[in-house]
UniProtKB/TrEMBL annotation:
Entry GO CC: cytoplasm
The NAD-dependent epimerase/dehydratase domain, residue ranges: 3-216
GO molecular function, one term: aldehyde dehydrogenase (NAD+) activity
Full protein name: SDR family oxidoreductase
Region annotation Disordered: where it falls in the sequence: 267-293
Organism of derivation: Streptomyces xanthii
Pfam families, alphabetized: Epimerase
Superkingdom to which the source organism belongs: Bacteria
PANTHER family: NAD(P)-BINDING DOMAIN-CONTAINING PROTEIN-RELATED, PROTEIN YEEZ
């Protein structure tokens, strides 16, 4: 299969590209910069230059491909306005990719977060939230899944709060960055809120399985660890960095404060049974032990 991928040089995307190539697929990666292009080529992918705002490039590559994996997102959490702009740009890009595949029965694999389910771990059937700082991403994903009725084998991989590799990545990685800057491994509230997690290499296998065989209009949970308490996460971060782990005001996390404070465990039982996905890599708490002081 000839696969076009956006976001193919990030922590998750690099793992997905390697997984696809190991399964004998060919990959064309969107690259916005010279550094990204060089990294993609070094991994064995072909390269097309452009970014998420280059909609004609996205449409053209989607039309030429046998399948599309969309992962790119600017991850600019510096302000509510920057985050809103990132969500808007991604929505337009996903619309362009999806519309280019209408009537082809080709796969389109996109990505979202796992949803919130009050009092229990979220499951694949739970709806995505369309409010909050990143609610617009859910709207775009649901539109993409709706293309199943228009001849697109669209699926969504729901990623947990932290996708990690070698002690870095995801929201746990952001907590590590903040701890390095402030000298405190902080968490909002009492820290009992739970975050699910998955190793990037395990998540990559699920992306491949969805691309190859997932039915149209379906969502899947890339969850290996159902939910670690945030204070347990920051305890490891603090110990590895030699800084205290303690509660800090939610407002200190800016636009991400409400997200960081939410209890949001998630299950992947259906995904494992239906697609035969079995995570085998280190857990988040094990992987955080690789943080360098």
């Amino acid at each position: 299969m000839r696969v076009f991928i956006t976001g193919g040089t990030g922590l998750i995307g690099s793992a997905v590209v390697a997984e696809l190539l190991s399964a004998q697929h060919t990959v064309t990666a969107l690259a916005r910069s010279d550094a990204s292009a060089e990294k993609a080529r070094a991994a064995g992918a072909d390269v097309v230059r452009g970014g998420l705002t280059d909609l004609d490039v996205l449409r053209g590559e989607a039309e030429k491909a046998d399948g599309v994996v969309h992962l790119a997102f600017s991850n600019d959490f510096s302000s509510p306005e920057a985050l809103a702009q990132a969500v808007s740009e991604e929505g337009a890009a996903l619309r362009a990719l999806g519309d280019a595949l209408v009537g082809t029965d080709k796969p389109l694999v996109t990505v979202s977060g796992t949803p919130l389910a009050q009092g229990r771990p979220a499951v694949e059937e739970d709806p995505l939230p369309t409010d909050g700082p990143v609610g617009g991403r859910s709207v775009s994903v649901e539109r993409a899944l709706g293309l199943a009725s228009r001849g697109v084998r669209s699926t969504a991989i729901r990623l947990p709060r932290t996708v990690h590799n070698e002690g870095d990545g995801g929201f746990a990685g952001l907590l590590t960055q903040i701890a390095r800057t402030t000298g405190v491994a902080g968490y909002p509230g009492d820290g009992t809120q739970r975050w699910p997690a998955v190793h990037a290499l395990d998540a990559a296998v699920l992306f491949r399985l969805a691309l190859e065989k997932a039915p149209a209009g379906t969502a899947w949970h890339a969850v290996a660890d159902e939910g670690d308490a945030v204070r347990d996460i920051t305890a490891v971060i603090g110990r590895r960095l030699g800084v205290p782990s303690e509660s800090v005001p939610q407002e200190s996390f800016g636009a991400l404060g409400p997200i960081f404070a939410a209890d949001q465990p998630a299950s992947s039982a259906h995904t494992r049974t239906a697609l035969g996905w079995q995570p085998t890599r280190p857990s988040l708490l094990e992987d955080l032990e690789k943080i360098q002081p």
